[in-house]
Structures are given as C-alpha cells and as structure tokens.
Amino acid sequence: MSEKKTTHFGYKEVDKDSKADMVADVFHSVAARYDLMNDLMSAGIHRIWKRFTIELSGVRKGNSVLDIAGGTGDLAAKFSRIVGTEGRVVLADINQSMLEVGRDKLLDTGYQGNIEFVQADAQFLPFPDDSFDCITIAFGLRNVTEKETALRSMLRVLKPGGRLLVLEFSKPENEVLSKAYDAYSFRLLPLMGKLVANDAESYQYLAESIRMHPDQDTLKEMMEDAGFNRVEYHNMTGGIVALHRGVKA
Ligand SMILES: C[S@@+](CC[C@H](N)C(=O)[O-])C[C@H]1O[C@@H](n2cnc3c(N)ncnc32)[C@H](O)[C@@H]1O
C-alpha cells in the first residue's frame, strides 16, 4: 500500500510537503499580535490552562525542560523561574518570527538567562537521546505535519522517567457547549482576527485546525502507540482544551 501523500491544512487537503510552509505563513503573519490575540480570544483563560500545565509538569529546580512550539515563551518564562540558574530551559520553535517575538519579550521581562532559543521542527528534534526531564508542547501539535513522528522524536529526547505534556484544543464534552463554541470560532474568531490583526484567514485556519485535531481518546492512543506510558488526560473548560501527560519508561 502506498503511503498517503496529503494531509490537512485546516479543512483543506494539501500536499504533505507544502503544509509546513502554509503553517509558517500563518505564524509569520500573526507573530506580532500573537499575545494580544491570545488574551482577547480566550478572555485570558489561556493563562489558567498554562498554569495547570506547569503544575502537572512536576518540574523542579535544576531540571532540563524543552518547550517545543514554544512561540512567544509563556511556558518557558515560568519554567525559567522554577529551574533556576542550575537548570536549563530550551524554547524551540520552527518559526523565526515567533522566536524573535518570544526572545524580545523574555529579555524585556528579565528572565534568568537560563533559556536557550532554538529554531527546530518538532518532528526532527536536534538534541541527543535522553536530554530532558520534561517536554511541553502547547497549542503546537495540531500544526505539525506528522504528529506520530513528532511524538516519537519527543520520546527519544526525554530522559527515562521524563514527562511529555501536550496542551491542545480538543473536543467539548457536551452538545450545547459544542454548538456555542462552533458559533464563536467560525463567526467571531475570524472577525476578531480581521479587526485586531487585519488577518481573518489565519484565524479561520485556527478554527478549522482545531476541528481537525484528534479528540482526547485518539490523542491518548497516539501517545501510547508512540511509546509513552501511563498516558492520561485532563479536560479543561468543558473539553475545549485538554492536557495530556505521558511518561517515558
Ligand atoms: C499557537 S502557537 C503556540 C505558542 C505557545 N506554545 C503558546 O502556547 O502560546 C503554535 C506554535 O507552533 C509552532 N509550530 C508549528 N509547527 C511546528 C513544528 N513542526 N515544529 C515546531 N514548532 C512548530 C508555530 O511556529 C507557533 O509558534
């Protein structure tokens, strides 16, 4: 059987080879206004989702942490304070524009100088085996072309006993919430994107890519298939977002 050569970019079926460039265009376009839009779109709730991710990470002073698809550095900034000067945080992202916005923001807020900024693709992480105590990927996995390849790459660079945390949009738990959420994401999001960032298209992609992303149980299975142990997930905001955690044996 020949391997499938296409994948999804939102609702569009595109060549696997072109998805990364299309995703790159989205994030080059939104980088400057990314933080503002994040706060507006989620009414600030993304901060709570991220705080819970930090709590469940179990990261301690002196640990090594990789935040992949780290973008503008919200998680990296928090990890930087926890691991301290004996620890190490790597903020990795495929997109130069997002990394630049992240680096400027963290420099302005005076982080501890323990963060490295690396341009890297989640599918092909440029780190030795068994490097990190914890890896996070927040709102990044759904943009990756081959999610299975990325999960295996993350498993490889985790230390035995290390944790992967995947924070991502997921499937609302009930019909009423699901309908309201659909109306919000397909009507209001692109409109907000147009008004605030003059970019309706990127926010249309956001809404579509969320619907195409695997639901809670499917992602749990994908993590198990990639080799993670003790995989579990926690729904937040009625399942609009889920946090999956798996451990490397
Ligand atoms: C929605 S942003 C999330 C940023 C940040 N983690 C947060 O939660 O605010 C998604 C990020 O994933 C990055 N990204 C997309 N595909 C990627 C890939 N294959 N490897 C690494 N990063 C990727 C994008 O450049 C973008 O910065």
Automatic annotation (TrEMBL):
Q: Which residues form the signal peptide?
A: none
**Which GO terms of the molecular function aspect are on file?**
2-methoxy-6-polyprenyl-1,4-benzoquinol methyltransferase activity; demethylmenaquinone methyltransferase activity
InterPro entries xrefs: SAM-dependent_MTases_sf, UbiE/COQ5_MeTrFase, UbiE/COQ5_MeTrFase_CS
Q: Does the keyword S-adenosyl-L-methionine apply?
A: yes
Enzyme Commission number, as recorded: 2.1.1.163, 2.1.1.201
Q: Annotated pathway, please? A: Quinol/quinone metabolism; menaquinone biosynthesis; menaquinol from 1,4-dihydroxy-2-naphthoate: step 2/2; Cofactor biosynthesis; ubiquinone biosynthesis
| Keyword Signal on entry | no
Which residues take part in binding S-adenosyl-L-methionine?
72, 93, 121-122
Alphabetical list of CDD domains matching this protein: AdoMet_MTases
Q: Which UniProt keywords apply?
A: Menaquinone biosynthesis, Methyltransferase, S-adenosyl-L-methionine, Transferase, Ubiquinone biosynthesis
A GO biological process held by the record? aerobic respiration
- Matches recorded under Pfam families: Ubie_methyltran
Q: Which reaction does it catalyse?
A: a 2-demethylmenaquinol + S-adenosyl-L-methionine = a menaquinol + S-adenosyl-L-homocysteine + H(+); a 2-methoxy-6-(all-trans-polyprenyl)benzene-1,4-diol + S-adenosyl-L-methionine = a 5-methoxy-2-methyl-3-(all-trans-polyprenyl)benzene-1,4-diol + S-adenosyl-L-homocysteine + H(+)
Q: Which SUPFAM superfamilies match?
A: S-adenosyl-L-methionine-dependent methyltransferases (SSF53335)
Q: Which NCBIfam families match?
A: MenG_MenH_UbiE (TIGR01934), PRK00216.1-1 (NF001240), PRK00216.1-3 (NF001242), PRK00216.1-5 (NF001244)
The UniProt function text for this chain reads: Methyltransferase required for the conversion of demethylmenaquinol (DMKH2) to menaquinol (MKH2) and the conversion of 2-polyprenyl-6-methoxy-1,4-benzoquinol (DDMQH2) to 2-polyprenyl-3-methyl-6-methoxy-1,4-benzoquinol (DMQH2).
Q: Which HAMAP family match?
A: MenG_UbiE_methyltr
**Family according to the record:** Belongs to the class I-like SAM-binding methyltransferase superfamily. MenG/UbiE family.
Name of the protein in its database record: Ubiquinone/menaquinone biosynthesis C-methyltransferase UbiE
Q: Which organism is it from?
A: Pseudohalioglobus lutimaris
Gene that produces this protein: ubiE
